[in-house]
Structures are given as C-alpha cells and as structure tokens.
Amino acid sequence: MPILEKITVADFRNIRLQELEFSPNLNCISGNNGEGKTNLLDAIYYLSMTKSAFSSTDRYNFRYGTSSFSICGTYLMPNSLESRFSIQVDLTGEKKVRRDDKPYGKVSSHIGVLPVVMVSPEDISLISESGEERRRFVNSVLSQMDREYLASLQQYNRLLQQRNRMLKELQTDRDLLSVFDSRLQAYAEPVYEARKKFTDDIRPVISEYYRMLSGGSEQVDVCYRSDLEKGALADLLASSYEKDRILKYTSAGIQRDDFEFSMNGWPIRKCGSQGQQKSFLVSLKFAQYEIMKRCCGFAPLLLLDDVFDKLDMNRISNLLSMVSGSDFGQIFITDSNKVRMAGIVDRITEDRAYFEVSAGEFRLSGGLPEDEDLPEA
C-alpha cells in the first residue's frame, strides 16, 4: 500500500512552506480551530485526487497574496520502491501533475494511483443536501477504482452539456438530438451498472461497521435510485423530448441518480440524531475504505478530520479500536483536543506521531504529558 513518508506544501491555504515526515501507522495532528489542521489533510487529499475535498474551485486554495501553490509527496509504493508525486497549480487554473518528475499525459491518469478516503464534518452534506452531493461521493469512490467508469462519466457529462446547449436553441434538430441520445445511453449504462453494483457491495459493509461503532442499536441501509430502472436511456429521452424542449435542459438520465440513506426504514435525515448521523457517515466512509481495499489489493490512506466531534467516548473508543487493527493502513487524525486524542491513541499503539499546528506552522510534538489525566472511556 502507498505510505506517505514525507510531504512538502507551499502556499496552500494558510500553509506558507512546510515539510513534514510521517509515521507509517498513525499520525495525530492537534491545534485550535482555524490553525490549519484540516488544510494539511486537504493537501494530502489533493495530492491523491488532484482537487480539494472542500473547494470546487482552486481560487480558494491559494494562500492570500500568492499566485500559485504546490504539493509534493514521497510515497513508499506497494512494490517497495519510492515514488515522488507533485502538483503545481497557478492562477490560470493549469495543473502540472508529475510522478518522479515525469508529467502525466492526462491529469485523470493519476486518479486511483494513491487511493484515499477522507472523513470530515463536511460529510454531513451527504445527508442534508441534494443528490448531487451523494453522486459526487460515489463518483469519487468509483473513479479511484475503475478507470472505465471515470472515462464513461466524463464522456457522458460532455455530451449532456452539448445536448443541453442544443435544447436552449430556438430551433432544435430532433434527428441530431436522437444521435446524442444514443451516445448518451452508451456511456450511461456502464455508469448505472457500476453504481448499482457499488450499492449492493457497500450495503452489508456499512451495516457491519455501524454495528461495531454504535453497538447495533439501529439498522442502517442504502438504496440506489435511477431513471434507468425504468428502461433504456435513449427511450426515456425520446419520450421526454417535448418536456425537455420546454424546460431547455435534459430531465432524465444518470445526472438525476440518488442514494437514499435510512435508519430502521426511515430517512436518516429526518429520524437520526446528530450522533447517529455522524456514526452513519463514519460507517459509510469506512465501508468505502473496505470496498476500495478489496478492489485495489491494498489499504488506502485514511484521513480522519475532527472525527470525534458529536461522538460519545464509547463510540470514539470503538472507532479507534477499529482503525488500530491490521486491516487499516496509514492514518491521519485531527482533533482540537490533544489530551483527548492522545489519551485514547496512546492506549492503542506506540507506533504513532504527534504534530501541533499554529497559524499554518506544524511541529512534531510528544504525546500525552505525564501529569495529564486520561479521559474517561
């Protein structure tokens, strides 16, 4: 599995210039809110996914007053050889992605080379927001495991944009539109089948992780909903032609897919407490981790940002006991409460490193001071 041995971050968010070396096991990062803990995890995520876990545009990733940022990481790869990956982005939006100083032909070719799973407070949008957030999550998972999925999705989105432009024209060529419909169907089918299989694969894993985390007091589930359940996309588009012409956009297709999260048969958005929702989201991401590990043949990096928030001490202990096992690889954890984090981590493993951050500057630190009391479990 890829192990991040060293990272260099320059002008990313509030990080001016930082070079850090990490433990191959557990890395704990503490500091007050707003100091830069999440920014470091996002830099690691960016190095894997070539985009931020939080910002849809790179203009928010430049340190104030700068015109470019760069992230470089040295990884020990599954073949036991080291590789150096780097990304540089400037104000034009151009991304230069390199492996061992050799540029990729396409940026998308890098996706999946360094598999990563991130758990953060922002994940609540998967429950509270629209289906677009849930589709984005599933796309990020499947794109790391299946290059054909990523290629089909990219082609589908390009064709969909062209079809929508045609629908906005005063005179729409229906024959030409039918050609687009057939091509859209060709790319939609593999995306639909992959999403359906992913849902079938992840459902029992989510249920099991939720049981381990919460003690099994509730049953959780995921269901996949798609227009393609009704038939071939080309037929659906043909039947919705008049509607689409009036609306001036495509009203059927995989861009409308959604994933329903439930607890005891009810929408978790409406019936779940904050702690239950957080437990479900952690279980969802751990299930993602498990599915990706099976597919890749090795463990992805696991980034746990402020994961203890809204969890009681029993669930926190259960969570860390889970990730300390041999099934997990390299892990990065952030928490504003160093005593809480160290008190639990020190019980679990000696193979860990502690970092403290202030105003975007990180330093290696010790664990729990000897005069500190351990928090109650």
Automatic annotation (TrEMBL):
<comment type="similarity">
    <text>Belongs to the RecF family.</text>
</comment>
<dbReference type="GO" id="GO:0006260">
    <property type="term" value="P:DNA replication"/>
</dbReference>
<dbReference type="GO" id="GO:0005737">
    <property type="term" value="C:cytoplasm"/>
</dbReference>
<dbReference type="InterPro" id="IPR018078">
    <property type="entry name" value="DNA-binding_RecF_CS"/>
</dbReference>
<comment type="function">
    <text>The RecF protein is involved in DNA metabolism; it is required for DNA replication and normal SOS inducibility. RecF binds preferentially to single-stranded, linear DNA. It also seems to bind ATP.</text>
</comment>
<keyword id="KW-0067">ATP-binding</keyword>
<keyword id="KW-0547">Nucleotide-binding</keyword>
<protein>
    <recommendedName>
        <fullName>DNA replication and repair protein RecF</fullName>
    </recommendedName>
</protein>
<dbReference type="Pfam" id="PF02463">
    <property type="entry name" value="SMC_N"/>
</dbReference>
<feature type="domain" description="RecF/RecN/SMC N-terminal">
    <location>
        <begin position="4"/>
        <end position="339"/>
    </location>
</feature>
<keyword id="KW-0963">Cytoplasm</keyword>
<keyword id="KW-0227">DNA damage</keyword>
<keyword id="KW-0235">DNA replication</keyword>
<dbReference type="GO" id="GO:0003697">
    <property type="term" value="F:single-stranded DNA binding"/>
</dbReference>
<dbReference type="GO" id="GO:0000731">
    <property type="term" value="P:DNA synthesis involved in DNA repair"/>
</dbReference>
<dbReference type="GO" id="GO:0005524">
    <property type="term" value="F:ATP binding"/>
</dbReference>
<dbReference type="InterPro" id="IPR003395">
    <property type="entry name" value="RecF/RecN/SMC_N"/>
</dbReference>
<keyword id="KW-0238">DNA-binding</keyword>
<dbReference type="InterPro" id="IPR001238">
    <property type="entry name" value="DNA-binding_RecF"/>
</dbReference>
<dbReference type="InterPro" id="IPR027417">
    <property type="entry name" value="P-loop_NTPase"/>
</dbReference>
<dbReference type="InterPro" id="IPR042174">
    <property type="entry name" value="RecF_2"/>
</dbReference>
<dbReference type="GO" id="GO:0009432">
    <property type="term" value="P:SOS response"/>
</dbReference>
<keyword id="KW-0234">DNA repair</keyword>
<dbReference type="GO" id="GO:0006302">
    <property type="term" value="P:double-strand break repair"/>
</dbReference>
<feature type="binding site">
    <location>
        <begin position="31"/>
        <end position="38"/>
    </location>
    <ligand>
        <name>ATP</name>
    </ligand>
</feature>
<keyword id="KW-0742">SOS response</keyword>
